[in-house]
């Protein structure tokens, strides 16, 4: 399952204690949305995978920064 977020920067993330939903507030308020905890965990995992993909060349060859 893939969840895509808008291209607008995130301004604030808030988890409701009562309903356990996560509200995501963007700089452009028309994109503000609320997601379930499971959807939020999926978004976080997708972000981690994207970061791993970005830093993979650096972690495989750290001398890249030593030159």
Query: What is the overall shape?
Result: elongated
Q: DSSP helix count?
A: 1
> Going across the major beta sheet, what is the strand order?
1-2-3
Tell me the quaternary state.
single chain
Number of strands: 3
> How much beta, percentage-wise?
15-25%
Q: Indicate the mean pLDDT.
A: 88
Task: Outline the low-pLDDT stretches.
Answer: none
Major beta sheet summary: 3 strands, antiparallel
Helix content: 25-40%
* Rg over CA atoms: 16 Å
Order of helices and strands: EEEH
Number of domains: 1
Main attributes?
single chain, 67 residues, elongated
Task: Explain what the structure shows.
- The chain is α+β, with helices and mostly antiparallel strands.
- The protein has one domain (10-58).
- Helices cover 36% and strands 21% of the residues.
- The chain has one helix spanning 37-60; strands at 10-15, 22-26, 33-35.
- A 3-stranded antiparallel sheet has the order 1-2-3.
- A hairpin with a 6-residue loop joins strand 1 and strand 2 (22-26).
- It is elongated and about 50 Å long.
- The mean pLDDT is 88.
């Amino acid at each position: 399952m893939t969840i895509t977020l808008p291209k607008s920067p995130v301004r604030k993330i808030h988890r409701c204690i009562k309903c356990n939903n996560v509200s995501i507030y963007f700089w452009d308020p028309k994109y503000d949305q609320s997601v379930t905890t499971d959807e939020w965990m999926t978004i976080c995992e997708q972000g981690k995978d994207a970061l791993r993909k970005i830093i993979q060349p650096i972690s495989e060859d750290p001398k890249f920064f030593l030159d």
